[in-house]
Amino acid sequence: MRLFQLFFIFVFIFSLVYSSDYKKLHQQSIVVDTHNDVLLRALRGEDLSVRTTDGHSDIVRLKEGGVDVQIFSVWCGGNFGKGRAFNRAIEMIDTLNAIVRRSSDKIVFATTYKEIEKIIKQRKMVALIGVEGGHMIEDSLSYLDSLAKRGMNYLTLTWNNSPSWATSAADETEKKNSLSFKGLTEFGKRVVNRLNTLGVMVDLSHVGEQTFWDVIALTKKPVIVSHSSVYSICPSSRNLKDDQIKAVAKNKGVICVNFYSGFIDSNYSTRVREIKKINASLVDSINQLNPDEWKAEGLIDSALAPQYRNARPPLSVLIDHIDYIAKLVGPDYVGIGSDFDGIESLPQDMDDVTSLPNITRELLKRGYKEKDVKKILGGNVMRVLKANMK
Known about the structure:
alpha/beta; three-stranded parallel sheet; 2 domains; six-stranded parallel sheet
């Protein structure tokens, strides 16, 4: 009986020490998240400088999650055509500026790599900008230059739609028989060269395979894949195949794993379709009342959220994607690109940004050395930022 009690005391003490160790390592690491869509909530009027109860993040929760560098996504859909898309980008950057001003004691913009290091040493969070979708430059190198001057740190060459100079993964997959071209046009190559010159990272999330390979053959700087996962585990057109992962590693770039349930677990979409089928009358009624497809989808997701929660994959599946890349090409080429506030489903044990330390815990459980955990949490992205920024 005494030995039995001693055993449980030992297990209890060990769990306390282990818990303290992973949390301490997380706080000691430079944590970089390369993709967060929280600015969409700010545009709807939410004050993100205070702790909120909606969505996945705000300035207070980002700090609690140990985030040191956050790249905020500037995004609009393909329905924002010429005359609107660039202005939308400026509006979102202005919104981020306002948030930073309200929380200047917690978060600061950086325009150089030295500034990033300085802000981190001050124990404040660094705000950076990722423009998600080449259509936001409206076929203008002048607009591209303007966004770079406003602080753009990466340009995602395509979103799901394709600008006139590069093809997206969605279009190369779904419209492959009707495309007039695939990959980069001559103008697209000029865009990549200009990004290299400006010190802005080329982001290859969302791009089609031909666009991917055209960029890899052209770029003189390490690329970033800001929020994509592994095709071999979850065969989505948004994920990278093994030869692409190897190419990014050869380029000295970084692949930042997306947290979305549908991009890490191929069975999630099947489970969601079954949920929608069971709730067909609700889905039909929302679609009929809301002709805007994106609005309707958002309302459906909100209504069915409790059922979606039960369909989520375990956190171990997300770690599988990190682990796969690390084993295929080494731990120097993988990071995290959560897609917080841009997705409706996260894996279990990852409810919002305050759950980020759980990734550190799980990596340690799988036997990762502390130095490699630090690389994955942010060190690898810091390296690519430094290689690109002036």
